[in-house]
């Protein structure tokens, strides 16, 4: 049964700038903001919209060494993007399903609220190896690094 974990954070950047790095420019930005984890990101298939397949290649000391993801939701109007892991990554750590959905909302001119929904399921009834609270912390760290990148130009 698919479970959900929700969290949110407020970032001190404009919605449009955050949406651009989260939905369109992440192929070049992800390795810059996570240089200790991500070697590169490649588009395997698609144009950046729903159905696009991506591969995140990690550095040699990171295990597993890659994660394939599929964009399952992409709505420019509501600033929502969903990425489902389809191979490697969290699926190599005991999960049978893992999807992260980001929904951005403008709060003030220079602030954006990001709602994060993590949907997940386990391969079996064994104890969870990957805890949604831990993966959400990684996701929030990534968002904070995006914020710093947008504010200072460095990760």
Description:
With 155 residues, the chain is an alpha+beta fold. The chain has a single domain (3-152), classed as START domain (Alpha-D-Glucose-1,6-Bisphosphate, Chain A, domain 4). The chain is 25% helix and 44% strand. The protein has three helices and seven strands. It has helices at 15-23, 26-33, 132-152; strands at 3-11, 38-45, 53-58, 66-75, 80-88, 95-108, 111-122. A seven-stranded antiparallel β-sheet has the order 1-7-6-5-4-3-2. A hairpin with a 7-residue loop joins strand 2 and strand 3. Helix 2 (26-33) packs across helix 3. The longest helix has 21 residues, at 132-152. The mean pLDDT is 92.
CATH C-level label: Alpha Beta
Distance between the termini: 37 Å
Overall pLDDT: 92
Name the structural class.
Answer: alpha+beta
Number of strands: 7
With strands numbered from the N-terminus, the spatial order across the biggest sheet is 1-7-6-5-4-3-2
Low-pLDDT sequence parts: none
Beta-strand level of the residues, as a percent range?
35-45%
User: So, the CATH homologous superfamily?
Assistant: START domain
Number of helices: 3
C-alpha Rg, in Å?
A: 15 Å
How many domain regions?
A: 1
- Secondary-structure element pattern, one letter each: EHHEEEEEEH
CATH topology: Alpha-D-Glucose-1,6-Bisphosphate, Chain A, domain 4
The CATH architecture classification is 2-Layer Sandwich
Described by strand count, sense and barrel closure, the largest sheet is: 7 strands, antiparallel
Pfam family, one: Bet_v_1
Family: Belongs to the BetVI family.
GO molecular function: abscisic acid binding; protein phosphatase inhibitor activity; signaling receptor activity
Protein name: Bet v I/Major latex protein domain-containing protein
